[in-house]
Amino acid sequence: MKKQKVRYYVEYTDDFEIARDQEYKIPDSYEYIRRKPSERFLSGLIYSLAVIFGYPFCKLVLHTKYKNRKAFRKVKGDGAFIFANHTQPVGDVFLPALACFPRRIYTVVSPANFTIPVIGKVLPYLGALPVSDSLKGMKNFGNAIDTRIGEGKIITIYPEAHVWEYCTQIRPFPSASFRYAVKLSKPVFAMTVTYQKRRFSKKPRTTVYIDGPFYPDKSLTPRQQAEDLHKKVYDRMLSRSRHSNYSYIKYEKKTD
User: Where are the strands (E) in the chain, listed by range?
Assistant: First the structure.
């Protein structure tokens, strides 16, 4: 019998998926919103092709089932945020898009993803919103979120930040991830990816749970609102993660 794969970590911020340039930074001149007709056409085309490819990939490779996709109907036409655990290097591009279909999503990503061969070139057309570390860049990033939410789009955030493939635990993440939902007074959803044993395969079945919407509590201060949303989403993801009954890859903390 093949021995189970084990990955050892020191901190929850350890990265097991290394891009070509982990230190790559988005220039301040980066265009988050593409306005040219040719760019908008290309974006629509590439996104549509990604969804077409993503369906059989999620169905046949990840063996995905969704629970409670109808929750998104409660915010029909309104902008919203999805917070999801980060467990698939490729699948996490498609899972929220298929969960929300036919609505379009935009995804907050690390700039390092732009250095991945081929994929990095098409990320802007797939709706990637790279985080910046400069004041001007963060202003442009925030304006892009404001614009997309104002258009009634859904923005996906992976608050754990780093991909831990097939991880069945929910890693800690900061309440600061919810500041845009608080600022814009928009609902948030928890999307929890879980894994179950399949009878005749080592690869697990993927079950995705959708919970929400959760709304900012306007009786609280902005910071308290973010903390309140964080608790509701984290607690729900933690609860849903207990539906995982199989670890295809086991993660263990280094003890030495």
Answer: 5-9, 64-67, 80-84, 105-109, 128-130, 154-157, 188-198, 201-214, 249-253
| Cβ proximity of 197 and 246 under 8 Å | yes
pLDDT tier at 21, thresholds 50, 70, 90: low
b or e along 42-51 (b: 16 or more beta carbons within 10 Å of the residue's beta carbon)? ebeebbeebb
| Spatial distance between the Cα atoms of 12 and 253, rounded to a whole number of angstroms | 9
Neighbours of 242 (CB within 10 A): 11
Q: Over the stretch 121-162, which tens digit does the pLDDT of each residue have?
A: 888 889 999 999 899 999 999 999 999 999 999 999 999 999
Cα 43 from Cα 39, distance rounded (Å)? 6
Pairing of strands 188-198, 201-214: antiparallel
List the one residue out of 124, 128, 108, 103 whose CA is nearest residue 178. 108
Q: What is the rounded CA–CA span in Å between residue 233 and residue 239? A: 10
